Amino acid sequence: MNQIDIFKALSNETRLEILKWLKEPEKHFDKPSAHLSKNMNEKGGVCVGDIVEKAGLSQSTISQYLTMLQKAGLLESERHGQWTYYRRNETIIKELWNSLKEEL
Amino acid sequence: MNQIDIFKALSNETRLEILKWLKEPEKHFDKPSAHLSKNMNEKGGVCVGDIVEKAGLSQSTISQYLTMLQKAGLLESERHGQWTYYRRNETIIKELWNSLKEEL
DNA sequence: TATGTTAATCGGGTTTTTTCGATATGTCAA
DNA sequence: TTGACATATCGAAAAAACCCGATTAACATA
């Protein structure tokens, strides 16, 4: 858990938004994808395309942003067929919160 | 309190360090400046020169970093004679914690 | 008032970030 | 196996961040 990498990831409007959207996916991504398994739905993953549409940036940019958020540890991903679903890594986010409370 | 500006300010090793140093100034800045009023000492302000020395970067860079941290709201400054003392703005930092706990 | 000291600002070379379009990879379905 | 679709990766132009030395501004004091 590198704090600098986390802050870098969060210091971009779009990436910060993505993290917040994924806190309540059902609220921000109306259409429940048909290809989404019930299990996946419970875990709250959202596929890249839906995030691209919502963010209004290019597919390549969003894909890179998601990778960056994942490398920072804030997101985790799971591939199902041709779709990759991203969801928050709540464990790391809680850890971040604790370390900030202590150190910051 | 702009979260993006705060994250940008924190996404640099030196600036993050400065903020942490200022959490316990007496621990990280040994020499209590003679020119430091008792009142100032209680509030824990540290002058720019001491931070420059500790950080090992140029005076201009540190001055700019401090300004940036201040603009983000994380630090506050007070000028006494030819010295400017910087200290943490604990109110804002607490606000930041709360907003992160809620929104992030 | 002239000098020295502290801190802020300016201008700029270098590196990193941002964001894109094009292309590659992986997967499903006919 | 071919075509269509989702996502990842590549290469690059533009913008921003990094960090410096030089200069300016503000202040103290002799």
Would you write up a description of this structure?
- The structure is a homodimer of 104-residue chains.
- With 104 residues, chain A is of the alpha+beta class.
- Chain A has a single domain (3-103), classed as Arc Repressor Mutant, subunit A.
- The first copy, chain A, contains seven helices and three strands.
- Chain A has helices at 3-10, 13-21, 25-28, 38-43, 48-55, 59-71, 90-103, and strands at residues 46-47, 75-80, 83-88.
- Chain A has a three-stranded antiparallel β-sheet with strand order 1-3-2.
- In chain A, strand 2 (75-80) and strand 3 form a beta hairpin.
- The radius of gyration of chain A is 14 Å and the shape is globular.
- The two termini of chain A are 15 Å apart.
- The model of chain A has no long low-confidence stretch (mean pLDDT 90).
- Chain A binds chain B through residues 3-4, 7-8, 10-13, 16, 19-20, 23, 93, 97, 100-101, 103-104, and chain B through 3-4, 7-8, 10-13, 16, 19-20, 23, 93, 97, 100-101, 103-104.
- The structure holds a DNA duplex (30 and 30 nucleotides).
- Chains A, B: It comes from Domibacillus epiphyticus.
- Chains A, B: It holds the Pfam family HTH_5.
Compact overview of the structure:
With 104 residues, chain A is α+β, with helices and mostly antiparallel strands. Chain A has seven helices and three strands; from the N terminus they run H-H-H-H-E-H-H-E-E-H.
